[in-house]
Design a protein that fits this description.
The chain is built from 13 helices and 13 strands. It has helices at 13-23, 58-65, 84-103, 144-162, 184-189, 209-222, 238-244, 257-266, 274-277, 279-282, 289-292, 302-319, 330-338; strands at 3-8, 28-35, 47-50, 69-72, 111-117, 167-173, 175-177, 193-197, 203-204, 206-208, 226-230, 236-237, 248-252. It starts with a strand and ends in a 29-residue tail after the last helix.
Length: 367
Amino acid sequence: MGRRVLITGLDTFWGGRTAQALESDPNVEMVLGMGTREPMVSLERAEFVRADQTYSILSRIVRATQVDTIVHTFLVTDSTRSSARATHEINVIGTMNLLAAAGQAGTPVRQVVVKSSTLVYGASELDPAWFREETPRSRPASTRIERSLLEVEGLVRDFAEDNPSTVVSVLRFANVLGPDIVTPFTTNLSRPMCPSVAGFDPLVQFVEETDVVRCLEHVTKQRVPGLYNVAGAGKLPWSEVVSMCGARLLPLPPAGTAALSKALGALGLIEMPPEIEDLLRFGRGVDTTRIARTGFTCRYSTAGAVASFIGALRLRRSVGSAPPSYTYEQDVEQFFRHSPAVVRIAADGSPRTDPSGNTPASNRSDA
């Protein structure tokens, strides 16, 4: 039997793309995704199960499907997309339920991969130039996103200690840029005016969206345990990033920044949630030596991630945004996967045979 993988957040950007990457692997027998809404990407083999945002049904799913690997992509890292209560339910309660399912008696789960964020380090004038995985925060967490992510990582750390036979991986990704991802950074950089804090020009670090998926795939396939920073090489001044994107800086006063950014946000002029306010003062950089030792290297540097985003941004400015190309429909998906009317082609170009060795009628030349 091949690998049997369960992915949380199949209906999210990261869950859907991770499923697409893993379902193309012949060593992965089954990909099962859970989400609160239907997926927004086209899937070949992955199955979808609807669940609430705390994954209260997860223990039953694990027992019923005998999954051996769980990839947890469903963590909130942007407070503009979630209320305080929903953030706690998704990040903390959802992770607690996931770990309970993975650690239940007789569990088939042998690997847990968690997609976390470098937000756990915060941003402060006391920070080192580069955070290593064991480097503590310079100041206590001040935002609900940071607090919830730290709580999640604490839960995962306790689970790893209590379940030494399970491969546990935590990946701390830097802020993401790319052609398709939507975040406060991509939203701001797409506008004519981009927020900054007057008197500050921090060095910032990004990871390109395809490198995030590649790293999740790498760690899952290679069963790599441990805690890792993941980011593109190098840092850039925020002013340079803004200039590269064809925008101008909108300096906000260093005192009362939160109140003013909230007011401007209500007007739709900027997106500056609390978790990036200090980042636009002090910046942040993470050391990626540890993940490199596992054989993974980002294809894009920080500058490359910015260039990837700019290429898509210029295209959108020229031709406009493309309409959604796919909407998940359960009955349509079942037709394509199971109907004898669908011709299935093997990798060598010949019609696939059914389990009995016979060519399905729809695949025969006399059909």
